[in-house]
Each structure stands twice: as structure tokens, then as C-alpha cells.
Amino acid sequence: MFSLVLVLAPVLQGPAAQAETLWSAGRRIESIERLAVAVAATPGDRFLRRRLVEREMTVHRYASALEHMAGLGRDVRSQRALALHGMGRFAEAVEFLDTLDPDQLLLLVATLDRLGRHGSSDRWLERAGSLIGLDDSRVQVLDARRLARLGRYADVVPIVAQVLAADPYDAEALFLHGQALARTGAREAGLAALERHRALTPLLDDLDFAERGVDLAPRHAPNHARVADVERAIGRLGRAEVAYARALELAEPDEVVPIALRAARLFDEDRNDLARALRTLDEAAERAPDARLFVRKGDLLVTAGQQHEALDAFEAAARLRPNDAEVTERLEVCRAAIAVEDGR
To answer: Containing domain of residue 81, as a range?
Structure first.
């Protein structure tokens, strides 16, 4: 039994062991480079080669992953499909997609449709409906795409409306909704939906880019903060809050301030939650005392009509930046307001 365990879970040594340590630390590119050295030294080690392929796929290094799949055969069939698809080699990818895997089955339907192989796409869509369920939003969007292709726009409207009720940020559903509305007599509503789609699409592209940054360096706080920024711009505030919290958790002292300022802005401007915004600034100041945090706190308190508390914040900023003209101006304005308030 002991020897069997060693076969199933080999003890890694040398570059392979170093690669695991680096991966756990979030240093993924360095990890992959070390693992590639180990594979080059022992090209017949299928375990290491599969591990390298998995890691390269995680960070979207599709060409390298394909190269390292050599000799692994059916063991990496699904990864081969995704790598080919990620490289835009769609006609090749469809030959390897796993029709028993729900996600890959849906990708197969979409890719066949993209290639103009509509008969095959429609047959696999029927299979997807049976396997995944007709009430799955992904199946519904693909079905709406099929109906739009057939010119059945009146049938498209209720399907995508249901999808958008659950997720207003589904880009394809939004486009199909606008197109269908415009072609069924609701031109103004359709154009409005298409305009929302036009505004949303570049944000989703930005989000994809930001999430790839997290895939590359998951312990780098600014990567998570960038995800939060885009989620906030999209309007998904809950997701933005989670990403800001993760960013602050990971942040080095020199990274805390800009992230905290952006998170506090979300709580103040989007959530109308002054207490949480102030708490975010206070917690950041404990970790990385910075005049910008106290200035922002003072500004929020002035807006809230809490002049005395604002003065304390501006004075804290002045102690950190005693010759700063903007801080001095805020102090003077705040003191003047307090004097008027107190009747002096």
C-alpha cells in the first residue's frame, strides 16, 4: 500500500519541488519556468508533464501547453480543446471538446455556430438542453441565438428577458434583446438595450484582462484591486467589495493606500455608507499612515457636516505633511467653518 501511494503521489524534488513552492506563493510564472526545467530533464515523466500543462493552461499559455501535451494522448484531450480554442483555432478545437462535460458541450454549441455549422450546432444544443436543463441561462442564450438566426425575433424577446432578469450584465443576452426588440416594433427600447451592450462590452473585456492578471499573480494585491475597479464600473458592487477586501488583505504597506481610497469611494458614493468608508480609511491608516487617507476622511466628514471630527482628520494629515498647501487650506477652511458654527 505504501509503495502504491508513492506511485500515485510522487515526492517532488529539485526544480519540481521548487516549482510547487513558488506556485503556492503565487509566483506562477517562475513556478512554470522551474517546472519546465524539470520536464526537460525527465521528458518521460507523465506526471510532471501533465502538471506543467495544467499550470500553463491556468495562466493562459496555450501555445506552450499544446507543445507540452505531446505524448500525453487522451489524458489531455479536454485541455487540448481549450488550448486550441483559446488560440482561435476553432475548427480544430471542436474535434476535442468533451460532450459529457456541460461547460465544454456549451462551448461546442457556440463554436459550431460561430463556424457556420448550424445543423451540428442545433443538434448539440438539443443535447445540452437535455443534459443541463432548458432553464439554464447559458442554454437559453444559445437557443435565443438560434432563434435570431432563424428570424424568430418575437420568440427571442421573452427568453433573453428572463436571462437579463437574473443577470443584467449578460452581454450576449443584452445584444440579442436589443436586436429582437428593434425588429419587433420596439425600436427605442431596442436601441437603448444595444447602447447598454455597447457600453458594457469594453468593460467586460477589461474585466477579462484584469482576471488574467489575477491568474498570473494571485497574491499581487493590485491585480485584485483592478478587478474590483472594473466590477464597480460595471455596477456589480458586491463583487467589487469582495475584490477590494481581498486586495487589502494581500496588500503590502506601499499598496494599501490607493486601494483603500478606492474602496472607501465605493462605500461612500455607491453604497451611501459613510461609517464603512471611514472604517476602511481608519484601518488602512493603522497599517500605512498616509496624509491622503486623513484628507479623504476629513473631506467625507465635512460633507457629512461633522466639522470637529473633520478638523481632527485634517490635523492628522498636517502632522504627516506639515508644508502641504492643500492640507493647510483644508485646515483653514474647516477652522473657519467651526468658528462660524460656534458663533465666534
So the answer is: 1-95
Confirm if 174 and 200 have CB atoms less than 8 A apart.
yes
- pLDDT band with cut points at 50, 70 and 90 for residue 2: very low
The grid coordinates of residue 257 equal 493606500
Is residue 264 a part of any domain in this protein?
no
Q: How far apart are CA 151 and CA 159, in angstroms?
A: 14
**Does residue 273 lie in a domain region?**
no
Residue 243 is assigned to a structural domain of this protein: no
CATH of the domain at 315: 1.25.40
278 pLDDT band, cuts 50/70/90, is: very high
The closest alpha carbon to 251, from 260, 238, 261, belongs to 260
Q: Nearest-5° angle of CA 156, CA 234, CA 85?
A: 65
Over range 152-166, report the average pLDDT: 97
Calpha distance 302→268 (Å, rounded) = 13
**Residue 230 covered by a domain:** no
